[in-house]
Amino acid sequence: MPTILTKQGLPRPAHDLWRSYVEEWDRSLRADNKPHTTRYNYELAVTQFADFLGGEELPQFLAETGMDDTDDSDADEDPTDVERKHVEWFIAWMIHTRSSATALNKYKALQQFFNYLLDAEEIDRHPMAKLSQPTTTDKIIPVVDDDQLASLLDACKGKSFRDRRDAAIIRLFDDTGARLAEVANLTTDDLDLSRDGILVRGKGDRIRFILFGERTGQALSRYLRARARLKGAADSPYLFLTARGGKQLKPNGIKIMLRRRGNLAGIPHMHAHRLRHTLSHNWQLAQGNESDLMVIMGWTSPEMLRRYGKSAAAERAQHTHRALNLGNRV
Predict the structure, then answer these.
(1) How much is the average pLDDT of 221-246?
(2) Which run of H or of E encompasses 209?
(3) Is the dihedral of CA 187, 203, 48, 141 positive or negative?
(4) Residue 11: which H helix or E strand, with range?
(5) Which 8-state DSSP code applies to residue 193?
(6) Do 220 and 200 form a contact (C-beta atoms < 8 A)?
(7) DSSP string, 155-187
(8) How many beta carbons lie within 10 A of that of residue 135, not counting itself?
(9) Do residues 30 and 39 lie in contact, with contact meaning Cβ atoms separated by under 8 Å?
(10) Is residue 165 predicted with pLDDT exceeding 70?
């Protein structure tokens, strides 16, 4: 059965009883002031889990892997009947069909869901009480060098609405390190051309103001003139719009655009996160203050400093080694 979406775009399980519990949980998440993106990711994981238990993927996966398929429960219809093995099957399937990192995210979301059911006394035991989370390895995300960035911007040369828009988006990602959703959800009121900066709403609804340079400001000004000529643009509060209909250019639309522009520039697998990693790398390469970088990027943990730009860490080490010139101290 297909996944159901609410009017707010939140996923819901196909089975009525599962859907009822997820909707009840959503009320609790809203009461805790969880942002929409967190609610979406949590509820997507539970919805995928419920649909997995009641779909064709489970018996096929168990048959392919030879895992024990003994099950006389009603877990596919009732989340209070879920046992440890059901979660194990789902996490193993996620690792098999997606990645260990994705499986870890789903594990954490399911843990929150069953924590809620336990606190609400809907279940007497936590099905994941002694279940270890899946181990992951750090995924190395390559940064974009200056030649690649120039090629990416060259792929947007032109005076069409799409060219102006895409060039502005790429420069904004490169200059601010903003997240994909943060850029997609920008409104015209969030753009301040008098101070050359954007007001972004990050994870946990944390708000920060990020400055950008002259070339990014120029690209945004050119885009705004093209936007003003777009039919329907005046009715939308969002900064970045689709070429047809003047609707919000959503995160998935930006993903598709970056992949297409990347392919034109000879840069396969181009995505917004590479530009976020690139800013972190260039900042650290220029010996920028790490605490300031955390503020710009919207991080609360210093661990992010290690993870972001990791693929170019050797280059930064060589740069620092050359600048220190310790061999010439005597």
Answers:
(1) 95
(2) strand 207-211
(3) positive
(4) strand 11-12
(5) T
(6) no
(7) TT-SSSHHHHHHHHHHHHHHHH---HHHHHT-B
(8) 8
(9) yes
(10) yes
